[in-house]
Amino acid sequence: MDGEREREASGRHTGAGSPPEGMPPRASDPAGQTAAEEVIADRAAAAARRAAAATGRWTAQAGRATARVTAQAATKATRATARGAGTAARSVGHGGRAGAERFRTFSRADGADESGLSRVTELQVAASAGDAAFTVALATTVLALPVGQARGQVAIFLLTTMVPFVVLAPVIGPLLDRWRHGRRWAIGSTLALRAFLSWVIAGLVADASPWLLPVALLSLIAARTYAVALTAGIPLVRPEAITLVTANARQSVATLIGMLLGTLVAAPVGRIGPAWSLRVAFLLYIVATVLAIRLPAAVDSRQPTRDGLLTGAAAAVGPGVAHEAQQRTPARGWRRLRLGLDLPAVVTAAMVTAAGAKALSGFVTLFLAFLLWDQPLPGVSSVVALGLVVAAAGTGNALGSVVGTRIGPRSPTMVAASMLLAAIATAALVTWRYGLVTLVVLGLVSGAFGQLAKLCLDALIQDRTPDRHRSRIFSWSETRLQAAWVGGGGLGILMPLVPTAGFATVTALLVGVLAATIMIRRGSATG
Q: Residue 199 — very low, low, confident or very high, per pLDDT cuts 50/70/90?
């Protein structure tokens, strides 16, 4: 009995220290504590694995759903972009075709298609586009006006611009007159030469060669030769329904269109490098060369007969040519050219007026560049103010071209004189009330004045001078007008930076131009 009690007590004592089956050991036992930690860690790891697996499944499902949505959105966006690009391309195509159709209607109106003037207008667009690409390429190098530099450097630049005209009047003009019976080939040769020089200059720009400036000046000589030859041939293809002023104005509008198109093409390409813009100019000049060769035969002057009278198309340009070819009275003073030619008084007066417009343009450009840099207008930066004036001048130039197409039978002399009076009044207004608004108005008026005065001068030369001397007279005229621009710019450099004094001086200059034209006309009437 006592033995059984001892065994039960011993069993209770032993069982009290052991945990039940399946339970973790008690913490009081180090071995049991380690086993408990291992069990808890295993269970936590298993739970983490199950959570990770669930998260992976959810992530995969979300990824597949996102991929499907993204793919659908990308497909829709691609289709929308394709539709938008197609619509834009169709719009550009329709706009281009509509613009081309409108230009063809403009260039062929009033019998210009039958006479051949429309081909000249189309040629002018291509040649001007090439000029724009050429200018874009060299606008920051040899053709850049250094208005931000010292006055002496700007004066050297002005003198450099006269270099192409040194050979224009004494050499190029007489050569064009001698070979006027092959004027189409002369025009085409100048364009082919400019194409070749553009390709050469592209290499010179890449190598930073010192020959860049001489070759660029040679290209400018070819450009002026082209302008003289083309302008001299316009009377031979002018339809009877329009005046010479209108015919010349159409070429000015074509020039604006070509410059715009050439800039739109060459400017993005020029971001790669100026050499690429010059290669664009090369291609455009090649196209213009082909168009020049395809000009109508009427552009070439007919051979004179033994009695000295012109025949064919040259005899049909108007009574003024025949009159000047047969009866030319001796002239004095301004009416006498140093080249041994006599000019009608009306042509000389128009040339003086156009020279006044050029002088005004040169003065406004350079005088304002230095004045606004030294004395900015209140509330506006110098760059913005000068940019507004230059933009107004460009707008005035374009308006002058458009107005020129609508002048009709109005007298070129009266048109030029009216614009001269408007320029005098505007310059006096700036002298009295100097400010941004009056400067912008002056830029607008000076641009229109310069364009209309040049159109009227060209028309009078074409109508009142003989065909056999016309290229020489145009060369002389272009040289004198460029000299007037340089003279006006030089005056703007030399003037003290006082607005009242500067614009009072240019107003007096324009009044002097008006007095000179009156004296020339009166001298002709009394002579």
A: very high
